[in-house]
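This section describes the prediction task in plain terms. A model, or a person checking by hand, is given the sequence of a single protein chain and must write out its three-dimensional structure as a string of tokens. No templates, partner chains or ligands are provided. The sample shown here is typical of the held-out split.
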Amino acid sequence: MLSSMRASAKYIWIFIVVAFVGGFLLLETSGLMTRGQITPTTAVAKVNGEDILATTWYQTTQNLEQQATQRGGRGITLDERQRLQDEAFDQLVADALLRQEYKRRGITVSDQEILDAAKFNPPPQLMQAPDLQTEGRFDPEKYQRFLASPMAKQEGLLMQLEQYYRNEIPKEKLFDQVVSDIYLSDAQLWTRYKDARDSARISFVLFSPDRVPDSAVRVTDDEIRAYYDTHKKEFDRPGRARVSILTIPRTVGPADSASTRSVAAVLKARILGGEKFEDVARAESADSVSAANGGSLGKGPRGRFVPAFEAAAYALTPGQISDPVLTPFGYHIIRLDERKGDTLSLRHILLRIQQSDSAAVRTDRKADSLALIAASAEDPRKFDEAARTLNLPILRAEAIEGNSVTISGKFIPSVGPWAFKGARPGETSELFDAEDGYYIARLDSLRPAGALSLDQAKGDIRTFLVRRKKVDQLITPANNFAKVAAAGTLETASQLMGMKVVKPAVFSRVSGAAELTGLPEIVGASFSLPLDQVSEPLKTVGGVAVMRVDERTPASRAAFDAQKDAQRQAETQQLRQQRVREFLGNLRQAAKIDDRRKSVESSSQRSVQ
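The expected answer:
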């Protein structure tokens, strides 16, 4: 048992994300401690006066990067690094806020609580470890034997469990307090049930603002200024940049596909010759996540995979191994472990299609030439020289801070984050090495993040105010229409006055209908107005409506009573999760957070230039 555990210890360590184990060594050897002006006391943020140190932020980011690299089996792009930096920052802010809340509420955790949790309530990630399962289910006895083994102590698992529960138990106590008053009465459940199952069928006529010419509406500069002053936060905009991009793709052809298929066929032969599928998957599969579990894709119904993969999987019998299967991800070898109806338990080995060695050498040499001419150049003409010399088309794009760059739907890695990390207009980036090729970019222009000025926002404000005033002007013609319709029918009034009657399909308060998008007032009125009567004009953002409720069907009380206990359980759980999310959001919103990341990073950039 223990030798088996030792051989597959990586399964167990999947759940270990606590930074302190090996963290300081990683930090020291990574070079992060020598970043420019950053010292062990440099703070990237203050959270209600509590420092978040730059070194802690870099260390947490690096831990997340290592996990991402292990999962993907490749290096990460600057876009991914930016996302992980933000994730690490948010995690550290949340941890600080939680610590402060524990202290405020007097929440603590005892050693006995930690011991009991470690013994009888293992983390979900450990419960999924294959070597702690029997017949696909977590085996408590195996877990207890492993906890008592010398290996658990030698490899630091007990320390990790202690740290895990020292963090998790206070959090559970806090969240229990936050949701303790949540209870749904029968009356509340019935209201929710009715909202989803009461249905209505209506007819309506919409007076659109487009009916009113712009010349009929006047918006003054004072009105625009007043709106701007009242809604200033709405005009915050992220940074924007214009970039030029050169790319050298790693093009694969039929020969590369055939070569990869041959390798897949060899792997299948090795398995049929006696090697364990799980061992070959761990050693050879490009899908690092499933490879760590012997190629396991778990158990599930139809619809989980792309069509080619799914068709091949459902054609297998239990224990059978497929021929190489081509999908957009590469070639797969699939083994069906178990089938119950449409539910399959599968394993696979993935081989990505890559360039042949000779093609890869030619691509790499061309990329070296590109880097030699233009990489990290301050003279913008070097970029144009590289394009001419290597006969590469120049692609243009707009980068928005915090977003990835795309051109005609194709993702361009690393360029977006680079543009906003201290680059100056005219500068060229380093050469970015991505899975599908090489990229280099020049920053052509840059507009920093910030609020639009009144002059910049004036056009949008005027358009909004003009539309709002047009809606006001539609009240009079809608009133006239409603009177004519009330004297006859909605349909005859529409014919007389050249209007169109809209008749959506039956809908509920929750589902609505496509024709009612952006018209919540009509949805609400559909369940309150008298049947078969023409309404007064209803003012909405999208215009002014006159409507009639043609049919209304109430929910069944008997059907509600038959399922209310299950409904209460499901909706209570949803409300608890929602309450926790709102609590954490409110905690952060009320906090005083001084985010210094940009200034720290900018200082670091300047000090190394």
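For orientation: The chain is about 50% helix and 20% strand.
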